[in-house]
């Protein structure tokens, strides 16, 4: 340890299991003694961490099939983070001052196994961009939906962390028309004016299927779905022959107060799937290990050229992190939500 490091640091813990959606009072920001790295470990001062929807599922306890553990009362929250190594044993492959990514966010200082840290370079112009979940959108569009020149693409949840990049990526890959869905008129305006969406389907402004028929009278070729529910059913009704649907999220169920975050039932027309030859596949990054590196390279180039933007909201201070999670669940933010320490 160096003398410059504090004796204690703050972290966010789950104070109580909610009966429905988690809110600010279900979390506590507490002081904890600063640990010292042992063999194979490093101490990282976190600079930024991502607030992500998957926490709702981990808190709700429905983690069957997920690669992450459930969160119990008293547990420290976790998730993608970027920080600086501030202490490391002499035999560590990492050195003080290295910038790394890891999964122990939601705390000011993280004791992390060196093998679970990813050293970061300057491929991306801002280290915060390494917290972007854009690899899911890119992987879905290139590995499952295989977007082609001239395609008409629908992105549900277009103002979210994945959706706000999916539309931009689809356009860069050749899509002729990009349609998004959101639940806010203000977000709808920003999707068109800032991110180049051609049309928006607005949740709560009438039947989704009718709005989609107006926005895409010729139908859609590709769906990047982060919502499921009524929007997935409506997309199937608009599918053209051979349409490719990639499921990246299920926010309609995950953010439902009537569910625990691990289910999102939806009724689909199997006959239309059959006669239209629609492919419907779920995207998992673990199934496509080559995507992350490919995406990071292209993302860096697009960011530097100005071809793409990384929409995100920065929340200052760990004390505001629990409220940031509640606000994200309530759909109050545009793009990814990042806590800045």
Automatic annotation (TrEMBL):
Residues 20-339 form the Enoyl reductase (ER) domain. Keywords: Oxidoreductase. This is NADP-dependent oxidoreductase. InterPro entries: ADH-like_C, ADH_N_2, ER, GroES-like_sf, MDR_fam, NAD(P)-bd_dom_sf. It comes from Peterkaempfera bronchialis. The keyword Transferase does not apply. Pfam families: ADH_N_2, ADH_zinc_N. One of its GO terms (molecular function) is oxidoreductase activity, acting on the CH-CH group of donors, NAD or NADP as acceptor.
């Amino acid at each position: 340890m160096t003398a410059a490091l504090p004796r204690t640091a703050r972290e966010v813990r789950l104070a109580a299991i909610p009966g429905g959606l988690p809110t600010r009072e279900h979390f506590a920001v507490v002081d904890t003694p600063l640990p010292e790295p042992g063999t194979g470990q490093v101490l990282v001062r976190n600079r930024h961490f991502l607030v992500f929807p998957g926490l709702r599922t981990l808190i709700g306890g429905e983690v069957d099939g997920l690669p992450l553990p459930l969160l119990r009362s008293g547990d420290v929250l976790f998730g993608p983070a970027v920080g600086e190594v501030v202490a490391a044993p002499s035999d560590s492959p990492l050195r003080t001052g290295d910038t790394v990514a890891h999964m122990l966010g939601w705390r000011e200082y993280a004791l992390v196994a060196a093998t679970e840290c990813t050293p970061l370079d300057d491929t991306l112009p801002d280290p915060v961009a390494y917290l972007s979940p854009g690899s899911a959108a890119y992987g879905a569009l290139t590995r499952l939906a295989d977007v082609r020149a001239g395609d008409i693409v629908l992105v549900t949840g277009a103002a979210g962390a994945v959706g706000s990049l999916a539309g931009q990526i689809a356009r860069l890959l050749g899509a002729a028309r990009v349609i998004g869905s959101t639940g806010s008129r203000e977000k709808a305006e920003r999707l068109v004016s800032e991110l180049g969406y051609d049309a928006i389907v607005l949740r709560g402004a009438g039947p989704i299927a009718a709005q989609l028929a107006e926005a895409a009278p010729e139908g859609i070729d590709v769906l990047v779905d982060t919502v499921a529910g009524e929007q997935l059913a409506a997309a199937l009704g608009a599918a053209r022959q051979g349409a490719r649907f990639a499921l990246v999220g299920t926010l309609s169920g995950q953010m439902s107060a009537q569910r625990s975050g691990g289910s999102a039932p939806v009724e689909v027309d199997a006959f239309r799937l059959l006669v239209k030859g629609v492919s419907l596949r779920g995207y998992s990054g673990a199934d496509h290990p080559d995507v992350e590196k490919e995406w990071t390279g292209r993302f860096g180039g697009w960011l530097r050229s100005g071809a793409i933007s990384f929409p995100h909201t920065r929340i200052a201070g760990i004390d505001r992190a629990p409220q940031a999670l509640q606000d994200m669940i309530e759909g109050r933010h545009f793009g990814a939500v990042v806590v800045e320490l």
